[in-house]
Amino acid sequence: MAVCKMFALYFNKTKVAYFYDTVTNEFWDFDVAGPQIEQRVIKRFYYVNITVLCHFSLSIMALLLLIFFPLVDMPEGVRPLPNIIWTPFDTNPSPLHEILYVVMIWNLLLSILGNAFYDIFYIYCVQHLLVQYILLKELLQGITLGVEQTCSDLERFQSEYFQKAVMGRLKICVEHHNKLLRFGRELEKFCSRILTPQLFMSYAVLVINGYILSVDHADFTKTTMLFNLTGSCMIQLAVFAVQASDLKEQSVSVIDAIANSEWYLFKAPLKKALVFMVMNTKKGITITAGGMANVNNEVLVAVIQKALSAITLLRALIEE
């Protein structure tokens, strides 16, 4: 998976640059909707960063355990290595054993870093997109604030100044909404191919590690290591699924923000613009795995359920 993700980042440099430039140069600042929303957004990023740090720490912990405690017992007289490998030569003599040991640890570290770079970039893009939707909804909901507040609803409805002022604000919101939709579509294309093997790999790891843990959990060190590896794999899948679900919800809930605004004060041109915005919002932004399945919380639960079913089936077949 790490190799696939690194290739995806390398061969899509133009798209990666597009995502980064859009976030840094075209997305709204956090304070555009007021200090309260800004504090909420900052707190959101704080918790996301803590989650990413925990995920990375879990992976490093699993690597450290592999360095000091090999996952599989080696035959008597064979010096242990972090992973099982087959070679046509004897790996026991020095310095061959030490060289292989360092190379295998380096490969494991690169695997962790390769996954981390891609996952962190995905989190960076999705979280900024989510924040932009939060800001957009707040501005849409209060689109009439500060415009002839002292006038009655009838006076505001008949006021040309009010209609023009709100139309100017709405144009900015519509343009930004279209920008967010395009960003979301490009992000879905960017992640789609990677998420297909990610789903299969997560399922395979859950089944294999889950079966091993269910039949052999006497060795505390190996059990801890397997739990770390399995938990890291699940968090990796959850990074995509949970955020994709949140993105779908936030993108669709723009309709609620429009419904909660003072839309009844608008004349036909403004209402027409709102209708087109609602039509663009209905589908929302979805992240798919190869265009075959939507990646969301339901898929995450389904993978866990199917893995548990496979573990139960394996145990029943082997016990018979």
Automatic annotation (TrEMBL):
- Entry's Gene Ontology BP terms: signal transduction
Q: Which GO terms describe its cellular component?
A: plasma membrane
Topology within the bilayer? Multi-pass membrane protein
The GO terms describing molecular function are: odorant binding; olfactory receptor activity
Q: Which Pfam families match?
A: 7tm_6
Q: Where in the cell is it found?
A: Cell membrane
InterPro entries in the cross-refs = 7tm6_olfct_rcpt (IPR004117)
Alphabetically ordered keywords of this record: Cell membrane, Membrane, Olfaction, Receptor, Sensory transduction, Transducer, Transmembrane, Transmembrane helix
Q: Give the stretches traversing the membrane.
A: 46-72, 99-118, 194-213, 225-242
Question: Chief location of this protein?
Answer: membrane
Query: By what name is this protein known?
Result: Odorant receptor
This protein's species is Callosobruchus maculatus
Upper taxonomic classification of the species?
Eukaryota, Metazoa, Ecdysozoa, Arthropoda, Hexapoda
